[in-house]
Write a structure and sequence with these properties.
With 665 residues, the chain is mostly helical. It is built from 30 helices and four strands. The radius of gyration is 35 Å and the shape is globular.
Length: 665
């Protein structure tokens, strides 16, 4: 090293040498102090940075809305950037790593929503669902929140998250589920038509959850596993609440278990909701049923009672008095396979033995013939007991026994026809309808005849009944006929005719018929290419602060529809529109036209959001019909095959009860 100042004295030279060294040391100390201060500041700020990471990610969740202006979603890196310092600060490292895992989970969940609703695509949805599952595997995480530490465990809600996005298969592969998650996963397996998978899911909770045990027990019985099914149902019957015991008792008897105990009110209701075959013991209704208005629609009790012994006309008139009200066109179920007339009086899953009803109706017809052969003075029914001890309905029935017998026979035949059609015996259902029309040809009978023909696929016969309705209906009743005629036109792909009929019905429909007419008009407006004529629906889309109809949404360019889909939430099931279920699926599905519509519908009508929804069979059938209207024959075929496999199981009244308890119908 060259000395710059060698002329200085030695003492001064050493001092000069030492000055730079002192300056250097003080600089280092200063830097250390400055760095320490900075680190202390960063360390103090580190917890806030962890919270800022979550806030930034929350802002990122709203980024898809920016798709309207074409900007790119690039905010995710910012959330991670906030964690850089907390991850190296010892006292925040653990919470920062937990937050990082949580952000990974949220990112996967957003990708799942994107692939199921915003840009629906089956492969991407399934891939995102697997990533959501993997991201949740290491939970729970302890996250630093505003008010301290909070434990987040997405595993508990994971089945809901997956099924809400339509990722049914992924949900069925989870294990160790809580009760609510088990129910969601069970329903997801039914949506796929995988009944054994549903049972495997239920096995883990059936020991302690009455609802799951009841449904699983009914399903095992339906599949022929009677011993295992009865064991589950017996456990429920021994410890569930009253409602649970009722359903389990119905399923147990349908599975072949003995119905024991006295005929209390509860027992009578259970028996009435069951298969009542000719071998079933006739319920004791003497002195009790006749005065019970609440059981006015429970025809199996009366049918079995009539068939058990020879009854006099006077006894029959008294017993059937509550069944003698005329059939009501407005209350006639539009989808006759989903609900019988019985269902209007009891919440229990019901089915009847149609043979018993048919033979009971024949016996009443014989009594009518006997009465008509008597002189006028003898045609009134002699009292079986004093007038003071019976209800007003019985008093009225005695005054006109012929009309009483006729209306009761019609109700029995209507129930038999519905049961036959539901069980797939369309020829026998048609015979029952013809006998019903022979007794009296009115609007209610023609509507039922039309619906039986539609269920059986006999469209030529359906047109005959449409023509008959045109002769019989008053302006007030025209709505019912117009709705049925519109559905017939849709079945035949007569789109303009269906649209005109839906318009006609929409102008006058009220109550549930108004919801049906609305959805039919929405669907037909889209199908004929005039979406501007589609009215707002009971579950209209909310966008840009105003109501947007499904028709208007379907007509938007895909980029704009995509932005609206980003805001949509599942609405599950809209009650009151049962007769227009396929129209609803078609209309909502048009919001995803050009993408994977079935993936979109899986998420919009997810069973995770549905309470009291129709059985899986009717969902599948309606989805298949909507797919045919779209021209998607591949989806229609796949959905139809699953529906037929379920329908094939319910081939008797007993199995129909079991299918309804299990949630298949």
């Amino acid at each position: 090293m060259t000395r710059l100042d060698s002329s200085l004295p030695p003492s001064e030279q050493s001092l000069a040498d030492r000055l730079p060294m002192k300056r250097s040391r003080w600089g280092v100390v200063g830097l250390v102090l400055l760095g320490t201060s900075a680190l202390a500041g960063l360390g103090k700020a580190a917890p806030d940075m962890v919270r800022a990471a979550e806030a930034s990610d929350t802002a990122c969740a709203d980024a898809p809305l920016a798709a309207r202006t074409g900007t790119r979603n690039d905010c995710e890196w910012k959330a991670r950037a906030w964690l850089a310092v907390p991850k190296v600060v010892p006292w925040t490292r653990e919470s920062a790593l937990a937050m990082e895992q949580y952000l990974d989970y949220l990112k996967s969940a957003r990708a799942l929503r994107q692939a199921s609703r915003v840009a629906p695509e089956a492969a991407k949805r399934d891939d995102a669902a697997a990533r959501v599952r993997d991201a949740a595997r290491t939970a729970p995480w302890s996250l630093a929140r505003e008010n301290g530490i909070e434990t987040v465990d997405p595993r508990r809600g994971l089945p809901f998250e997956l099924v809400a996005a339509g990722a049914y298969r992924e949900a069925t592969q989870l294990t160790g589920l809580d009760a609510e998650s088990t129910k969601i996963a069970f329903d997801a397996a039914l949506q796929l038509g995988e009944l054994q998978t549903a049972l495997a899911i239920a096995d883990g909770r059936a020991e302690i959850e009455p609802e799951i045990a009841t449904r699983a027990g009914a399903l095992r019985c339906l599949l022929g596993e009677h011993k295992a099914g009865l064991e589950l149902l017996d456990r429920v019957a021994s410890r569930a609440g009253a409602g649970g015991r009722d359903r389990a008792a119905v399923a147990r008897a349908a599975c072949g278990g003995q119905v024991s105990g006295s005929r209390t009110d509860l027992d009578a209701e259970v028996v009435a909701a069951l298969l009542l075959t000719e071998s079933a013991p006739a319920p004791d209704i003497e002195g009790r049923f006749r005065g019970d208005e609440r059981r006015a629609e429970l025809t199996p009790i009366v049918a079995a009672w009539l068939m058990a012994h020879d009854r006099s006309t006077s006894q029959a008139v008294d017993a059937i008095a509550h069944l003698s009200r005329p059939l009501d066109a407005a209350s006639m179920p539009r989808e006759i396979e989903t609900v019988s007339l019985l269902q209007q009086s009891t919440p229990l899953p019901v089915a009847i033995a149609p043979e018993t009803h048919e033979r009971a109706a024949e016996r009443l017809a014989v009594m009518m013939t006997d009465l008509s052969s008597k002189p006028d003075k003898d045609r009134k029914s002699p009292p079986a007991e004093p007038v003071t001890s019976v209800s007003p309905d019985v008093v009225k029935a005695r005054k006109n026994p012929t009309a009483t017998l006729r209306q009761a026979a019609r109700r029995l035949l209507a129930e038999a026809a519905i049961a036959r059609a539901t069980l797939g015996d369309h020829r026998a259902a048609q015979r029952d309808v013809e006998r019903l029309l022979d007794l009296e040809d009115d609007v209610a009978a023609e509507l039922l005849a039309l619906r039986v023909a539609m269920v059986g696929g006999d469209l030529d016969r359906a047109k005959i009944h449409v023509a008959a309705l045109a002769r019989l209906t008053s302006p007030a009743e025209d709505t019912q006929g117009a709705l049925d005629e519109a559905l017939l036109a849709l079945r035949e792909a007569r789109w303009e005719d269906a649209h005109a009929l839906a318009k006609r019905a929409h102008t006058s429909a009220k109550g549930s018929a108004a919801d049906e007419a609305t959805w039919l008009l929405v669907m037909t407006s889209m199908r004929v290419g005039r979406p501007e004529e589609a009215p707002a629906t009971p579950a209209a889309v909310r966008g840009e602060g105003a109501t947007m109809t499904w028709g208007r949404l379907a007509a938007l360019p895909e980029e704009q529809r995509r932005a609206v889909r980003a805001q949509l939430e599942p609405f599950g099931w809209v009650r009151g529109a049962e007769g227009a279920r396929a129209a609803m699926y078609y209309a909502v599905g048009q919001a995803a036209g050009g993408t994977d519509v079935e993936v979109f519908l899986d998420s919009m009508f997810s069973p995770a959001f549905v309470s009291g929804s129709p059985g899986i069979l009717f969902v599948l059938r309606a989805r298949a019909e909507a797919a045919r209207w779209r021209g998607d024959e591949v989806s229609a075929k796949g959905l139809g095959e699953v529906a037929r496999s379920i329908q094939a199981l319910a081939n008797s009244p007993a199995k129909l009860v079991l299918a309804r308890v299990a949630g298949l119908m």
